[in-house]
């Protein structure tokens, strides 16, 4: 059996990176006080969203107490609050909060994923860990046949997409960058929605909305009805 079911199962069952397995499971065993009593996901986190998506949002990896806890990308932490509010304002999410896998959130025209599927210590996967996860990332991208815009949040995700697409020379990441891939496809970049950027003002909601709007236009999607 191939396709999505096989890929999702392989991702969730993966134990190829010993350091990441130890870390994600340690975090799951020792939750933050604010999440005491919750059962953590503690496994690799597959992408999710609209399988016919025209916009693919690519982050670095699951957050230790966000997606590693909830089992859904950018769900249950401050980064997710920023991202899903922006997707809701863009008209691609039916609600502006992402709290858990069963919270009723639905996405349209967008797929959310990450270059590495396990939460890494200090949000820093090694090169080997990145490369071992690269096959999952490649297969996932190949399944998203309708993708027109790859929107990378941060340099790590941007480089992952550039490697997958085989872009040479590799473009340098910058907020707001747009790379014309030909054939109506684009690689775009935004600062990551991490607290390191949002709490300091390096990334504002206005900046994120502007990137989303450019992604909408380049994906050929209709504007949200106000």
CATH architecture: 3-Layer(aba) Sandwich
Structural class: alpha/beta
- Radius of gyration from the alpha-carbon trace, in angstroms: 16 Å
* Global shape: globular
Provide a concise account of the structure shown.
The protein is of the alpha/beta class and 226 residues long. The protein is built from eight helices and six strands. The protein has a six-stranded mixed β-sheet, sandwiched between helices.
Describe the structure.
The protein is an alpha/beta fold. The chain has a single domain (3-30, 45-219), classed as Uracil-DNA glycosylase-like domain (Uracil-DNA Glycosylase, subunit E). Helices cover 38% and strands 12% of the residues. The chain has helices at residues 3-13, 18-29, 67-70, 78-90, 127-143, 155-165, 195-198, 205-219, and strands at residues 48-49, 55-59, 110-114, 149-153, 178-182, 185-190. It has a 6-stranded mixed β-sheet, with helices on both faces. Strand 5 and strand 6 form a beta hairpin. The longest helix is centred in the middle third of the chain and has 17 residues, at 127-143. The N and C termini lie far apart (43 Å). 43% of the residues are buried.
């Amino acid at each position: 059996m191939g396709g999505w079911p096989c890929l999702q199962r392989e991702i969730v069952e993966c134990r190829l990176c010993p350091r990441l397995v130890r870390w994600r499971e340690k975090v799951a065993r020792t939750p933050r006080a604010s999440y005491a009593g919750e059962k953590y996901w503690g496994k690799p986190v597959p992408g999710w969203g609209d399988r016919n998506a025209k916009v693919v949002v690519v982050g670095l990896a699951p957050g230790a107490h966000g997606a590693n806890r909830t089992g859904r990308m950018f769900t249950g932490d401050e980064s997710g609050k920023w991202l899903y509010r922006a997707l809701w304002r863009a008209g691609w999410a039916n609600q502006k909060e992402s709290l858990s896998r069963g919270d009723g959130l639905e996405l349209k025209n967008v797929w959310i994923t990450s270059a590495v599927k396990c939460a890494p210590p200090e949000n820093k996967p090694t090169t080997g860990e990145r490369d071992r996860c690269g096959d999952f990332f490649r297969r996932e991208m190949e399944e998203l046949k309708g993708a027109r815009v790859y929107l990378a949040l941060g340099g790590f995700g941007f480089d992952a997409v550039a490697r997958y697409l085989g872009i040479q020379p590799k473009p340098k990441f910058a907020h707001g960058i747009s790379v014309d891939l030909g054939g109506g496809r684009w690689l775009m970049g935004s600062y990551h929605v991490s607290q390191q950027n949002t709490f300091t003002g390096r990334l504002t909601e206005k900046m994120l909305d502007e990137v989303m709007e450019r992604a909408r236009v380049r994906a050929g999607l209709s504007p949200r009805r106000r």
